[in-house]
Amino acid sequence: MTRIIADLTISADGYAAGHDQTEERPFGNDGGDGSGGRLHAWMFDTPDENRAEIEQLGAATAFIMGRNMFGPVRGAWTRPWNGWWGDNPPFHAPVFVLTHHQRDPQPMDGGTTFHFVTGGIESALTQARAAAGTGDVLIHGGATTINQYLAAGLIDELRLHVVPFTLGAGTRLFHDVPALQFDQVTARAATGVTHLTYRARP
């Protein structure tokens, strides 16, 4: 059975990105170099220790992401651009990008095709479910997109990677999301990150 999974790295105070995202600083003012190095160091500095969580990120057969996760408004939508993901994105599957801007599907090397969805979160989910077949759909972020799916009660499983620093401002998980209840499935502390998995209660 297809699961709808949200997976996100956040600071200890719940932010997935700082303010002022640009092409050069995809995670904005994150207190580091802005490239996501501080938030996502656990993926690159200690990959062997976090192998299971990294492999989970690529295990879905369809993905959903928000417009800013594909690329900032300035740049990605005013000229042809492949987003932040390079010529061979890591998804190797259909990716459905939520946006208000019409754009033709964008096939990439390695089997990834970005599909730009203007019909909202449910339209994107319907298309992703169909593309996933019997596999899972992974909502890859950012926090604003995941918040919309949480508020609509459409997420089955929430995976969080919590890094031990605070941002104080930016795009925050659970902003404007009503009270929810989860069951904790797993919790694992690693170097510089704690991995948490929650299952949404019906």
UniProtKB/TrEMBL annotation:
Residues 16-38 are annotated as: Disordered. Coiled coil: none annotated. InterPro entries: DHFR-like_dom_sf, RibDG_C, Riboflavin_Biosynth_HTPR. GO terms for biological process: riboflavin biosynthetic process. GO terms for molecular function: 5-amino-6-(5-phosphoribosylamino)uracil reductase activity. It comes from the Bacteria. Residues 4-187 form the Bacterial bifunctional deaminase-reductase C-terminal domain. This is Riboflavin biosynthesis protein RibD. It comes from Paractinoplanes rishiriensis. The lineage of its organism: Bacteria, Bacillati, Actinomycetota, Actinomycetes, Micromonosporales.
